[in-house]
Amino acid sequence: MRETAEKRNLPRPLVLAVTVLTSMGEQSLRKELKITRSLQREVSHLARLAQRAGMQGVVASPQEVKMLRRSIRGDFVILTPGVRPAWAGKDDQKRVMTPGKQLQPVLTML
């Protein structure tokens, strides 16, 4: 018999869905995945699907946080792996942001 987190007095683990990988840009979305929506619309669409499916949040680019906060209501986690200092290399990442720029939308919402 599997024990649940609640039975063991542990917090429930968060289950996050991935929207569009931060290594993908608008061009690769269209050419490789054959998706005709804009990148922002696709991210928003996938986040809303994830929320309706019962996910507690999504993994998305820091460039989409402000837009997602406007389109997704309630407690919804947005994990942003593309936050890097200005001096750090981008490697294969297309949609990144510095920590300072990432915090600007968060601070204006407080």
Question: Which helices and strands appear, and what pairs or packs with what?
Answer:
Layout: E1 16-18, H1 26-33, H2 39-52, E2 57-59, H3 65-71, E3 77-79, H4 99-109
Parallel strand pairs: 1-2, 2-3
Structure, explained:
- Helices cover 36% and strands 8% of the residues.
- The chain is mainly alpha-helical and 110 residues long.
- Strands 1-2-3 form a three-stranded parallel beta sheet, with helices on one face.
- The protein is globular.
- 17% of the residues are buried.
Q: What Rg, in angstroms, do the CA atoms define?
A: 16 Å
Mean of residue pLDDT?
A: 83
What amount of the residues lies in strands?
Answer: 5-15%
- Report strand order across the widest sheet: 1-2-3
Which residues form runs of ≥5 with pLDDT under 50?
A: 105-110
Secondary structure class reads mainly alpha
The succession of helices and strands, N to C, reads EHHEHEH
Tags for this entry?
globular, 110 residues, 4 helices, 3 strands, 36% helix, mainly alpha, three-stranded parallel beta sheet
Compact summary:
This protein has helices spanning 26-33, 39-52, 65-71, 99-109; strands at residues 16-18, 57-59, 77-79. The protein is mainly alpha-helical. Mean pLDDT is 83; it is low at 105-110.
